[in-house]
Amino acid sequence: EIPGARIAMSPNMRRDVIKEIDLPYCRRVGSVVNIARAYSEYLRPNAQFLSFDLPITFFNDLDVGDYASVTHWQGTSAASGYDAITARILGVTVVPDPASPHVHVQAFRRAPGLVVHDNFDRTAASNSLGSSWVEDESAATALQVADVTGVSEGPSFNQKFSLFCPDGTSGFAYWNATTENNHVASIQILRRTPGTTIQVGVGVRTGGTLASFTGYIATFEEPTAGNYFVRLYRYSAQNLTSSAGTKIGEKALTNVSLSPTVWRAQGDILELRATGKRLEVWYFSDMPENSLGKIIEVTDTNISSGKVAIVSRDGGDAYLTNFYARGY
């Protein structure tokens, strides 16, 4: 399903817009989800495929995959009411016309809206997630970039650093950019440490501070050994550390390990979507028992806008990666 496609095509549509893609050689669910997200950009309403011709002298300056600024798209000048756009080049063809040799360019313009993908693979460990993030934490280390080369699952994700949420700390960080009211936020669990309580996840329509937090959050939780849940909460100017918020949805997960202290949920993806008054929580896992797709759907009209965020109410020594957000 492409979040927001139904509304963009027609506000009165009652069925989701679904495109089936065959991926027979993808073993990990994370790869499948990331491919589907990339592919969906080409299918979104309001995405544009464009083509234009340039003088042959541009041939050496263009390559497939490059981003180009098109300053006169659909207009005779940028000042005539048509803004410059950024498009990604999909194809370059030389047209050897003796009278007028030129280059024919095919390009793609992404549909409008916020797009974020951050795997936190930085060049060094840090207590700061970066300039695009605004953080508020119970301790400076509550949300940190940490080395994962010594973590067993680290090499399989082909990254040296990831987001780390230490046990017993709390905090949240929101992406500091203009965000549409309808949006999706997602995080992937690289590894969680067995034997610790954990409550980490993502937020939508968030705002405020750690002491006075507003927003919806979906969290992966292990409140007691061997019992795993995904839960959806609403916070309204409440302390994110000490207040439990209002639980508005819950789904129990299957413990797929013979030992309750072994299952680490590595590779699992937790996603929260806010579309109008509808909230949906999706969960994907390499374990078929827990690769459930949409697991929670509720309606709630209390919060209508805010930022996408990462949330930790008890880090549980969890390593997280591949934060994804999309506005629509």
Describe the model:
This protein is mainly beta. Strands 5, 7, 8, 10, 15, 16, 17 and 19 form an 8-stranded antiparallel beta sheet that branches. It has a 7-stranded antiparallel beta sheet with strand order 6-9-18-11-12-13-14, with no helix packed on it. A hairpin with a 4-residue loop joins strand 11 and strand 12. The longest helix is centred in the first third of the chain and has 15 residues. The mean pLDDT is 88.
Q: Which structural class fits the helix and strand makeup?
A: mainly beta
Output the radius of gyration. Answer: 22 Å
How many helix segments? 2
Strand coverage percent: 35-45%
Summarize the structure.
6% of the residues lie in helices and 44% in strands.
List keywords for this structure.
6% helix; 328 residues; mainly beta; 2 helices; seven-stranded antiparallel sheet; 44% strand; eight-stranded antiparallel sheet
How do the strands and helices of this protein lay out in sequence?
Layout: H1 5-9, H2 29-43, E1 48-55, E2 67-70, E3 85-95, E4 102-109, E5 115-118, E6 133-137, E7 144-147, E8 161-165, E9 171-175, E10 183-191, E11 199-208, E12 213-224, E13 227-238, E14 246-253, E15 269-275, E16 278-284, E17 293-299, E18 307-314, E19 318-327
Antiparallel strand pairs: 1-4, 2-3, 3-4, 5-19, 6-9, 7-8, 8-19, 9-18, 10-15, 10-19, 11-12, 11-18, 12-13, 13-14, 15-16, 16-17
